[in-house]
Amino acid sequence: MTRKLLVLAAAILVAATAFAADKPQTMCPIRNKPIDKTKYVDYQGQRVYFCSGSCAAKFKADPEPVFAKFAKEGIVPENVQKTDPVCGMKVNDKSVKADWKGRRLLFCSDNCKDTFLKDPSKHVKALDEKPATKS
Ligand SMILES: [Zn+2]
Ligand SMILES: [Zn+2]
Question: Which ligand sits closest to the CA of 126?
């Protein structure tokens, strides 16, 4: 009887944990105020929202603490990624994904995902804003 209850409790806990994952961002990660949807920064394929321009500037100067906070709290930033960081192809299908240090990244195939996970910090740089092409 007790054992059955324990198993049940464990099952509920697992379900709750799964449910707690994938929270969309609602609060500014710098000052913990509600986000203003017009204040955001796109960085490495992630759209991160803020309550003000000064918070956005803080993020630009030092993005990692914000991503660390997302990872810790299970917040998944909005993905605005256009290309696969490994092969540079367009990502249309959102099924091949990996979470890395507070970012959610999309790939064209499991192959590219595996390549990415072998050296994420190297490949993620491909998603940094590319210098604007001058015409
Ligand atoms: Zn803020
Ligand atoms: Zn690819």
Answer: 2
